[in-house]
Amino acid sequence: MPAGTKPQGDGLAIIFSAPSGAGKTTIVRHLMDQPNLALGFSVSATTRPPRAGEKDGVDYHFLSHEEFSMKLSEGAFVEHEEVYEGLSYGTLCSEVERLWRDGRTPLFDVDVVGGQTLKSVFGDSALSIFVMPPSLGALEDRLRGRGTENEESLKERLAKSEREMQSASAFDLRLVNDQLDLALAEASDMVGDFLDQGFH
Length: 200
Known about the structure:
By secondary structure, this protein is α/β, with parallel strands linked by helices. The chain has helices spanning about 25-30, 65-75, 95-100, 110-120, 135-145, 150-165, 180-200; strands spanning about 15, 40, 45, 60, 75-85, 85-90, 105-110, 125-130, 175. It has a single domain (about 15-200), classed as P-loop containing nucleotide triphosphate hydrolases (Rossmann fold, 3-Layer(aba) Sandwich), CATH 3.40.50.300. Strands 2-7-1-8-9 form a five-stranded parallel sheet, with helices on both faces.
């Protein structure tokens, strides 16, 4: 995933990445519900068609392939990735700038590669947090508990998660999600401390 353009402004950013099943999205939702942190969820752009109930500008910024390519050539993306041929996702500079103008700190819920790319663009203005399961065995139990995977796709996902866990040291902080209530409190402290330091 190539690094892109740094948005205009000098605001801060919070980046959460994790292997699938580590509980990242639950933590991100918890943080978004805390008004004292003044976070804003960064809405990604995508070329995939909207699913039932999804709204443009709320769930995603839905772009045609032509629009996505044009924005790419204009340097409009902080980061982008072609997940597979014809399906792209990315973070628009305008989305980050909008949140900064609103007085909010963008919160990114991205995959491990996206997290590393965003950190390379924002540098010390961003806090990157890697959410880890207590062990690969615990992760396997969680993924099996979802009941959404067949055995083959489960093995593939676990192998990918194991590779992603090796990237944990590239992040500023690591958060082990063993007991959810403790992980939520720890995440709030990590983000709150970073924002306090950044705005002083």
